[in-house]
Amino acid sequence: MGVRPRGTMEGVEREQLADFLRRRREAIRPAEVGIADGPRRRTRGLRREEVAMLAGMSVDYVVRLEQGRSSQPSAQLLVALARALRLSDDERDHLFHLAGHRPPPADGTARLARAGLVRMLDLLGDTPAAVMSDLGEMLAQNRASLLLMSDHTGFRGDRRFTIHRWFTEPEARAVCPPEDRELNSRRLVADLRAAAGRRAGDPTVAGLVGRLEAASAEFRALWAEHEVAVRRADRKTLLHPRVGRLLLDCETLVTPDQGQQLLVLTPADAETRERMELLRVLGSEEFSTGTAERDGR
To answer: Which part of the chain is the HTH cro/C1-type domain (predicted)?
Structure first.
């Protein structure tokens, strides 16, 4: 049996990982992540509990990571840390290497939101915004987006694709008024057609289309019509369980390679603006409590 190199475990560079996480935490100004930087603050950069809150994990685990005492972090946990620490794409890959994982590929099934787009989510503040892949995977959301439509970043398998949930899970349509559902079905299929054209020969796209055709007669019929349209700007009505009907303008900004999209949602009328403000008031305290419970605090 070989001897494990000092400072490593299961392929993890434990000491280097701990040092990297500490230094990146200390390099972030609280204001960059929406945290007030009060006059009595003595900590350089973020506090450990703030990183834990942003990443949705326990403070104890952050402490153990920074002290080199943790178990090997999972890829999912590394993604959360990378977002919390606002790592660049290169820094994110480095984090994966130090933790004994292969960095996710730039394309395909394990995509991550671009670091620059994640920073834009922070800048948008109380405006709901999210980063999506061209196949409709939710890659990152800001807090306002979480309050508006809950967390959609944790789905696995085909469920991570919005279009798959729409055509295979009836409850996914509850947020859309009945009179708008047929149009939304067409828009989703036409957008997937455009992505399939750009990514010809991609097994991820072909597999998704094949499984949808097998699961949904509605999808099969719409796919056969071969309508193509990339969604960039739209107005939609959202039925929210707490504040009711919301009329939203949806602006979609597409990256140059069309692989990722920044979706920004703004109120289209005064009534929606008031209801979204009410949602922020109702949801902020609940959001903080839910995070604490997930962290075990």
So the answer is: 44-92
Note the pTM of the prediction, 2 decimals.
Answer: 0.70
Q: Which fold has domain 115-294?
A: Beta-Lactamase (3.30.450)
* Structure token pair of residue 53: 């809150």
Q: Which of 124, 119, 122, 113 is nearest to 266 (CA)?
A: 124
Contact in structure between 25 and 84 (CB atoms under 8 Å): no
- 76's tokens: 């999912």
Provide the strand spans (E) within 14-150. Answer: 129-133, 138-141
Task: List every span in the chain annotated with CATH 3.30.450.180.
Answer: 115-294
In the chain, residues under CATH classification 1.10.260.40 are 8-104
Helix, strand, coil shares, percent, the chain, to 5: 50, 15, 35
- What is the C-alpha to C-alpha distance for residues 97 and 20, in angstroms, rounded to an integer? 12
Note the residue count of the chain.
Answer: 297
How far is the C-alpha of 67 from the C-alpha of 64, rounded, in Å?
5
Please answer whether residues 248 and 266 qualify as being in contact, where contact means their C-beta atoms are separated by less than 8 angstroms: yes
Q: How confident is the model at residue 289 (pLDDT cuts 50, 70, 90)?
A: very low
Contact indicator for 80, 57 with CB cutoff of 8 Å: yes
Contacts of 130 (CB under 8 A, 6+ apart): 121, 138, 139, 140, 141, 142, 145, 152, 262, 263
Q: Which CATH superfamily hosts domain 8-104?
A: lambda repressor-like DNA-binding domains (1.10.260.40)
pLDDT, one tens digit per residue, over 117-167 is: 888 888 888 899 999 999 999 998 988 998 999 989 888 889 999 999 999
**Residue 251: CB partners within 8 Å, gap ≥ 6?**
232, 233, 263, 264, 266
